[in-house]
Design a protein that fits this description.
Organism (chain B): Winogradskyella damuponensis
Shape of chain B: elongated
Structural class of chain A: alpha/beta
Subcellular location (chain B): Cell membrane
Mean pLDDT of chain B: 81
Mean pLDDT of chain A: 88
Protein name (chain B): ABC transporter permease
Radius of gyration of chain A: 24 Å
CATH architecture of the largest domain in chain A: 3-Layer(aba) Sandwich
Oligomer: heterodimer
Number of helices of chain B: 17
Membrane topology (chain B): Multi-pass membrane protein
Largest sheet of chain B: 4 strands, mixed
Strand content of chain A: 25-35%
Order of helices and strands of chain A: EEEHEEEHHHEHEHEEHEHEEHEH
CATH topology of the largest domain in chain A: Rossmann fold
CATH class of the largest domain in chain A: Alpha Beta
Number of strands of chain B: 6
Number of domains of chain B: 2
Number of domains of chain A: 2
Largest sheet of chain A: 6 strands, mixed
Distance between the termini of chain A: 33 Å
Number of helices of chain A: 10
Strand content of chain B: 5-15%
Low-confidence stretches of chain B: 266-271
Order of helices and strands of chain B: HHEEHEHEHHEEHHHHHHHHHHH
Keywords (chain B): Cell membrane, Membrane, Transmembrane, Transmembrane helix
Largest interface: A-B, 31 and 25 residues
């Protein structure tokens, strides 16, 4: 059993509207799984089904090989996109309450809260009311509450919104550390650079259907176009350029570089190896820049969504 | 995992620790008592006002019936004509002038009495004067027919019908007053309780929505648990507040009336008037005894048990609907359109209770409304002091509980979907759709 969470062709309708259409995903243990998709694609519905907030019309969800049951609530930590706290309640009381709802005993919750409050250096907030904190500060509390009961599965929906870059980094490091300690993370966001940074696996949901999933690197390999960024310097610019154009497919450059004479994106055929291209180039001019174009998560996202 | 006690505890503590709740708890009885004291004081002031009424009696046989009382002095004017008398009364700034014109026929006297005054006179003074004149004219007429004053006195009778049920239970008019009071208080208490604390539940649901904590909570507990926890927690806070009100109100009432010597019961209510009438008829001594028998005649055990069941049942029924409304909307201003269908049966219940139960506690209207679940708690509570067969109470309670379960199911559905819906205000049609999600 290598997958912590498995959803088998899960469907959900709201009246006439189909929010999810036979979506299956498998989240490997110890991975950070990016759940991506445009607005209104059905991500939140899927996450809510995993959290047993809504029940699927069809399909099953397994956590650690077992069908989801109410007891599993304590194995899951969920930070929803629409989040907040009781404004007029004190930070400490509120954390204790939420932790107890997740099944921790009061004393256990206190010990763990102390650990986290010290770690994030927010100990002096204990007796403050939430309304006295800034949005980012409240988010930190929310993060602590989400991870406090040490769930096997952590679900973060846009965890970085509302944080300044320093705190966003702090939270990112905490997420990575939790992963290293054995937690599995489902991560839903529109910020592709954090997908790039964090995710091992992704699934892309579009218009209620899953249209793509797998290891991020595998997907990138699938989507790469055998294109290379090339920057050259040569006294005979025009001649070199036409020779390259005669041999390979040349596209306009998409990168920035310091004053090189020739900047190109070169696409090679299936049977050509990068070495062939490189040796061809070195024989014609001085190579300053030679990099394979790897599709970014952003490119993949846009391309896939547009094609569907 | 059962989180209900935890949720109840939180809801209770947040309510009870809330500043405005604390202020309301302690301020309301103060304000109420202050208001009652002011009203009592003012009405006392009104009663204490000295007034002089001048009498110009041209017939000569009516003036001696006007005896001075504590607050009213009668001045008899003799030998003046009407214009002079009016001028004089104006000058003296008297309350008014009662003019009884000279007529020969005795029958015509009653049509020739007039009262002149600066402002329109008070109703009670007018009827007092009328009663006095009527009585005297009647006596004079009887005397003319040869009846002596002693005979008239002797002919006065006072009928007091003794009431007894077929089972031999004695009762008196005071019984009905006591029954009305018990039923009225119970019904009205429930009505107030539903409105105040139902609203509180609704607001606290809306608060969870607007602060967006709801999804965090819902990922830990079942919506129905959260809803029930909210209802029970808020109700307990309500019971606490009510208890403090009753105790504090009682103590304050005693303190105020002993310090200021104001008899707070002077602020008379219709019920008290009924009480007074009963008192007049029977005399204070008998009344005290009757009051005790009346209370002991009440089906007390039945009353207490029924009160508990109907109060809790009725309250839970309505508060689950309030919770559903709270879940369906985003902010309090949007609640209006959904409030009306809830308030209507409630207000109807109170009207039925006040008008028909008093008139005929076992009539068709009262009976029917004491079975309809939305009105039954209030109406039945008002009827029970008059003795309602147990099978009727039982049937009504079964209907109430059935409806309550249905309402909770309905509310939980709305709640479950509604708490995660933001944005536009839902229509009834959409609410209906939510039931099928």
């Amino acid at each position: 059993m290598n997958d912590l969470l498995v959803a088998n062709s899960v469907s959900k309708n709201f009246g006439d509207f189909k929010a999810l259409n036979k979506v299956s995903i498998a989240v490997p243990k110890g991975s950070i799984f990016g759940l991506l998709g445009p607005n209104g694609a059905g991500k939140t519905t899927l996450i809510r089904i995993v959290n047993q907030i809504t029940m699927p019309d069809e399909g099953t969800v397994l956590l650690d090989g077992k069908t989801l049951k109410p007891e599993h609530i304590r194995d899951i930590g969920y930070l929803p996109e629409e989040r907040g706290l009781y404004k007029s309640m004190k930070v400490g009381e509120q954390c204790l309450y939420l932790a107890q709802l997740k099944g921790l005993s009061k004393s256990e919750a206190k010990t763990r809260l102390k650990y986290w409050f010290d770690k994030l250096e927010i100990g002096d907030w204990w007796n403050k009311k939430i309304q006295e904190l800034s949005k980012g500060q409240a988010q930190k509390i929310q993060f602590v509450v989400t991870v406090l009961h040490q769930p096997k599965l952590l679900i973060f929906d846009e965890p970085f919104s509302g944080f300044d870059p320093i705190n966003a980094n702090l939270i990112k490091d905490e997420i990575l550390q939790l992963r290293d300690e054995g937690a599995t993370v489902i991560f839903s966001t529109h910020r592709m650079e954090s997908v790039e940074e964090l995710c091992d696996h992704i699934a892309l949901i579009h218009k209620s259907n899953k249209i793509l999933d797998g290891k991020l690197n595998d997907i990138k390999r699938q989507y790469k176009t055998n294109t290379f960024e090339v920057a050259l310097e040569s006294p005979n610019k025009e001649r070199v350029l036409s020779e390259i154009q005669n041999t390979f497919e040349v596209l306009p450059a998409t990168f920035k570089n310091l004053n090189n004479d020739i900047k190109l994106n070169v696409k090679i055929g299936e049977n050509t190896s990068p070495n062939d291209l490189l040796s061809f180039l070195t024989s014609k001019a001085e190579v300053h820049h030679f990099v394979e174009v790897i599709p970014s998560a952003n490119d993949i996202f846009i391309q896939t969504v547009k094609n569907n | 995992m059962n989180h209900l006690p935890l949720i109840i505890k939180r809801e209770y503590l947040t309510k009870v620790k809330n500043k405005s709740f604390i202020i309301m708890t302690f301020l309301s009885p103060l304000i109420m008592i202050a208001l009652i004291a002011v009203v009592a004081y003012l009405s006392q002031l009104n009663n204490d006002k000295q007034r002089t009424i001048s009498i110009l009696d041209e017939t000569g046989y009516l003036s001696d019936i006007f005896q001075n009382t504590e607050n009213t002095t009668y001045t008899k004017l003799n030998g003046l004509d009407l214009d002079d008398a009016i001028a004089l009364v104006k000058e003296k700034e008297d309350y008014g002038l009662l003019h009884i014109a000279k007529v020969d026929a005795l029958d015509a006297v009653s049509n020739n009495v007039k009262f002149y005054s600066e402002e329109s006179p008070s109703l009670s003074i007018m009827s007092g004067l009328e009663r006095k004149i009527e009585k005297r004219l009647q006596e004079i007429k009887l005397q003319k027919d040869g009846v002596t004053l002693t005979q008239i006195e002797a002919s006065k009778t006072n009928v007091d019908i003794a009431q007894e049920s077929f089972e031999g239970e004695k009762s008196s008019k005071i019984d009905n007053v006591v029954k009305l009071a018990f039923g009225g208080i119970a019904g009205y208490l429930l009505f107030m309780f539903i409105i105040i604390y139902g609203n509180m539940i609704m607001r606290s649901v809306i608060e969870e929505k607007t602060s967006r904590i709801i999804e965090v909570i819902i990922s830990s507990v079942k919506p129905i648990q959260l809803m029930m926890g909210k209802i029970i927690g808020t109700s307990l806070a309500g019971v606490t507040q009510f208890a403090i009100w009753v105790i504090l109100g009682g103590v304050l009432m005693m303190v105020v009336s002993s310090i200021f010597g104001i008899d707070l019961s002077q602020a008379s209510t219709p019920q008290q008037e009924l009480m007074n009438q009963a008192m007049e008829a029977e005399g204070a001594q008998a009344m005290a005894e009757n009051l005790i028998t009346a209370i002991s005649n009440l089906p007390l055990a039945n009353l207490v048990v029924a009160f508990m069941f109907f109060f809790i049942g009725g309250y839970l029924l309505y508060s689950s609907l309030y919770a559903a409304i709270g879940a369906a909307v985003d902010n309090e201003t949007d609640t209006q359109q959904f409030m009306l269908p809830i308030l209507m049966p409630l207000i109807l219940a109170v009207y039925v209770g006040v008008f028909t139960v008093i008139e005929d506690p076992h009539g068709t209207v009262s009976t029917v409304f004491s079975f309809i679940p939305f009105t039954s708690p209030v109406v039945m509570l008002m009827r029970i002091p008059f003795g309602v067969p147990l099978w009727q109470q039982g049937l009504s309670l079964v209907l109430l509980i059935g409806t309550f379960i249905l309402a909770v199911w309905f509310a939980a559905k709305i709640y479950r979907v509604g708490i995660l819906m933001y944005g536009k205000k839902p229509t009834y049609k959409e609410l209906f759709k939510w039931l099928k999600y």
